[in-house]
Structures are given as structure tokens and as C-alpha cells.
Amino acid sequence: MGIYRLEFSKGPEVRYLSHLEMMRTFQRALRRAELPLAFSEGFNPHPKMSFASALAVGVTSENEYMDLELKENLEPEEIMERLNQSLPSGLKVKRCIMLSQKGKALMAMVGEAHYHIKVKLLHALSQTHIQEAITSLLKKKSIIIEKKGKKGPEKKEIRPGIIKLECVGVDEEWVKFTLAVQAGSEKNIRPEEVMKALQIYEKLPIDLELAIIHRKGLFKKGQEQLMPGPHPAFKE
Question: Which structural domain range is residue 98 located in?
Fold first, then answer.
């Protein structure tokens, strides 16, 4: 029995896959790779695999994580090679390590998510103006936005979950942000919610329909990594 942690990227070719579709894509790839999968028990057995955090439709990422359980021990390099040959273009396993034992669920370990965001400007603004809007927003003790709930619109407090927000570039049509927010099972702040707050609270003229969102990485609380090794968060 072997337990492995995989780091993978999701490129623009598959950006419109939902989380459920991505899970199914990995399941098909695992079967095509003929890996000795361990299955759950019960009426509807499924491969023992779990993801760190769901990625929204339209969002790309370079550092996602998945835990995988196999019935046999294989070399991590072999798992990577066989799986990459079976995955579609746009999904690529970048690293694989064997865990010494089954530990805490990946989703429960995640505490932060870091993003690069590019948003269309409705009219030209200076970077100074945009940074002032960010400063004004972050000074607020409470930031409440409306989101869709199962029973209709719901109010959501997002201010405690915004860790870092900066404007890192602007031209006549686009503005670029870096963002760090709380993520995981305890509290999950979506980047679209932070952009919506800038639009509503600071009247920033941005078109959220044309937002390009890229997740740079997932971390434990305090930016401790989910997987050992260099991590490119916040690097261009």
C-alpha cells in the first residue's frame, strides 16, 4: 500500500473544466495509466484520491495538490510519467512524493490561496489611484458582499479572510493584482468576491466578466507549504 502526494498544474486548455469534471478526468487518466488503484468500500467504490481545494471554472493554476492511494508501492517518478502520458493537454503532474503515512485530509490542511488576477478597466486609471482604492478597502473593519446561496442571496463577511491585496501593474485597458486569501474547509474567500468588493465599496470601474484568474499556490496557515520544495508564489 502506498500513499502519494501529487502537485499538478491546470492550464488554459482545460480552464473551463469544473471541479467534478477534473476529478473524472483524473480518474480516467489513472485507469489509462494502469496504476494499481486502491478503491473505497461500499455500493459505489471509487479510487482513493482527494484534492486540496476545488478550483472554480475558468481559473487556471500552477500548483494544485492531490493525495492518491495505491495498492502497491511504485516509484514516484514512474507514477508521474505514466499519469502524464494519460492526462489531456493542460493538466500536468509536476511533482510526486511518497508519504510515510496517511495523515490529515488535504482539504483540512489548506489555510491560504495566492492568486494573480487581471481585470479589464472600463476607463483608464493610474496605479496610484487603484492602490489608494485598495488601501481604503482594507482599512474597513467589515466588508460584506452578496453571494448566491442554496436558498437565494446570502450575505458574506470577507474582510477577515483577505490577507494581502496589491496592484502590481496597470495600462489603459487592464489592471493586475496579487491576492492572498484564506482558503480551505474553515473559511474560503474567492478572488471574485474581493474584486466585487473593490467594485462596490470603492467604485472601481472594472469588468468582472472579463477577469482572468490564476492561482499561484495553496498553503497551510502562515504560508507553510503542502509539499516540500521551492514554491513560485508571487513570482512573475
Answer: 2-108
Domain count, the chain: 2
Exposure string of 134-145, with b = 16+ CB inside 10 Å and e = fewer, is beebeeeeebeb
| Cell numbers standing for residue 165 | 491585496
Average per-residue pLDDT in the chain? 90
Grade residue 26 by pLDDT with cuts at 50, 70 and 90.
very high
CA dist 115 and 165 (Å) reads: 10
CA angle 208, 212, 217 (to 5 degrees): 120
What separation in angstroms does the CA of 91 have from each of 26, 149, 176, 214?
Answer: 9, 30, 25, 14
Q: Each residue of 49-67: pLDDT tens digit?
A: 999 999 999 999 999 999 9
Asked if residue 119 and residue 211 are part of one domain, the reply reads yes
Q: Tell how strand 60-70 and strand 2-10 pair up.
A: antiparallel
Phi-psi region of 227 (alpha: psi -120 to 50; beta: other; left: phi over 0): beta
